[in-house]
Amino acid sequence: MAVRSSLKDTGPQARTNHRLKASTVRLMKQNIPLMIMFLPGLLFYIIFKYAPMGGIIIAFKDFNLRDGIFGSPWVGMDNFVQLFNQAQSLQIIRNSFLISILGLVVGFPMPIILAIMLNEVRKMWFKRVVQTLVYLPHFLSWVIVGGIVLSLFALESGTINRWLEGILAEPYPFMYEKVSWLFIYLGSGVWKEMGFAAIIYLAALSAIDPHLYEAGSIDGANKWQQIRHITIPGISTTIILLLILSVGKVMDVGFDQIYNLQNAVVSDIANVISLYIYQIGILRGQYSLTAAMGIFENLVGLVLILLANYIARKFNQGLW
Amino acid sequence: MKATFGEKLFYGVNYIVLLLLGLSCLLPLVHILALSMSDAHAIMSGRVSLRPVGFTMESFQSLFQGTRIIDSLKNSITITVVGTTLAMVVTILTAYPLARKYFIGRRIFMLAFLFTMMFGGGTIPNYLIMKSLGIINTYWALWLPALVNTYNLLILRTFFIGIPEEIEDAARIDGCGEWRLLGSIILPLSLPVLATLTLFNAVGFWNSFLAVLIYINDTHLYNLTVLVQNMIQSQSVLQEVVASQMMQADDTSQITPEGIKAAGIITLMAPMVIVYPFVQKYFVKGALLGSVKG
User: Fold this and answer.
1) Could you tell me the CA-to-CA distances from A217 to A119, A221, B7 in Å, in that order?
2) 8 Å CB contact of A34 and B120
3) Half-sphere exposure (CA, 13 Å, Cβ side) for B8?
């Protein structure tokens, strides 16, 4: 600074500095309206995304409303120890793993298959009609889908049991047998989200060079070989990207779906983390214990997503 | 080129499977619609499949007279209209600076926002934040935490970045400031993606369920989703409705809980199903853009 100020404003060095400063000023000026625009969004992320992360500390406290987040006494890992010593919470963790891994195994490939099938349709009107229909369930709430499922599969008044009346001696308890309940749970999840999830693969498919298919069929590749060697490699980046993202959700069984499909009879397998947090945390006020459960779920998700990305990077397919 | 037998078979099977999938999405909805418009005898004896049997609107009538559905319908509309407007405004205002190369700190902000997609405080800390803000039992507890969806933010930002810089440069030379640039150049060029995100937000608010269960205690403030869920889950709510309607009407044979439930599901579903076809052409385009590049 001393050297610079000793120079008169005549040398080339000083001129550059001057220009730099002027451009900095211009940049700042240009940024003022942007910062004003950005402020509400920034506050949103601070208050509703990052502040709750700070709220995690209550998992290490014996939280009570009177003393607040900061006043409540520290208890270290007690809440976690309690979680991992209760048979009930262990069962809930196991259920969450089981249900979401099954959901992933069943639900992940279906949109890919659907997209490939839609991509092979040559009649555009047919493609549009099918797309319109299969996207629709995504926009219905789980209350609606749960209501439809119940009206179809209910024991007394369910449509399917009415149809089976002639065949079976007595109605089949679809919603009360664990295996059939699990099938209905997984099936309704696939039914609701398969179409919408296919959109992203359809986008990736439309980016594949059509010349590849021409070349393939000239070389005598049949439909199956074309799909196997052109279509699937063409969308593999998208598949891996979405797989990494969904691996991060492996503990996270969505509340709406399970809440609207569960019943007391199948609670042995249907009781999952999101239900537990609502019922024990929100309704019964055991904030610290359920916050600990929440952290456990989120940490497992974070670790899995980092791990998946690490593995994908080994094959040069990482997200970041 | 002539199709081989194998190819013909492939296409045939493909069309049939897709047709069945499409029907599987449509028919359950048609069945519920038929149930909602059938008379009690037909429903109880299981004769209703895809067309109303003994057509009657009694189920809708008792639904609208015997339950609080009109109030909850109004609540749902308030939640959806205000929530969607707020969310769109804030999402646009957040995405635009993040799409400008000269915006200071855009990389850091972007990373900080993306991180929230992978990790968060969870239900309980969120609840305690709302509590300390004093917005429990108000719709602010539904609107504020849903102002920005990071995925939507990404889609919008990607779209903004894709708008050719030449257009902006021309506007800038004409003396356009950032606000005018956004309002009169960028937004009119982004209508497909804005329509898409408006639909996504509106669907989210219309369907809000867990947030209402957690943050709203006053039953008068319940939305349609929670009201219909209560009707589906607890038979007793409906028995009361049926009983009270029976007191009023002489001809009681028309009402059954199943029919009222179906009518409730149809009422909850109707706005989505009506609006969806009009926005569909945009959202396919809009969602494509964000996802391929993002």
Assistant:
1) 17, 5, 11
2) no
3) 5
Q: Residue A57 falls within a domain, yes or no? A: no
Q: Which of B164, B167, B161 is nearest to B193 (CA)?
A: B161
Domain match, A36 and A94 both: no
Query: Amino acid identity of B294?
Result: G
- Shortest distance between the Cα of A203 and any Cα of chain B, in A, equals 6
Type of residue at A227: I
The token duo for A251 is 């503990």
Q: Which of B159, B144, B146, B155 lies closest to B197, judged by CA?
A: B155
Q: CATH second-level architecture of B69-215?
A: Orthogonal Bundle (1.10)
What is the extent of the structural domain holding A96? 78-314
3 state SS of A166: coil
Judged by CB atoms closer than 8 Å, whether chains meet at A195 and B229 is answered as no
**Closest to B292 (Cα-Cα) out of A244, A35, A20, A204:** A204
Whether A32 and A94 share a structural domain: no
- A24 at B interface, C-beta within 8 A: no
Provide ipTM, 2 decimals: 0.90
Question: Cβ–Cβ of B11/A120 closer than 8 Å?
Answer: yes
pLDDT tens for residues B181-222?
A: 999 889 999 988 898 899 999 999 999 999 999 999 999 999
Chain B environment of A305 (Cβ under 8 Å):
118
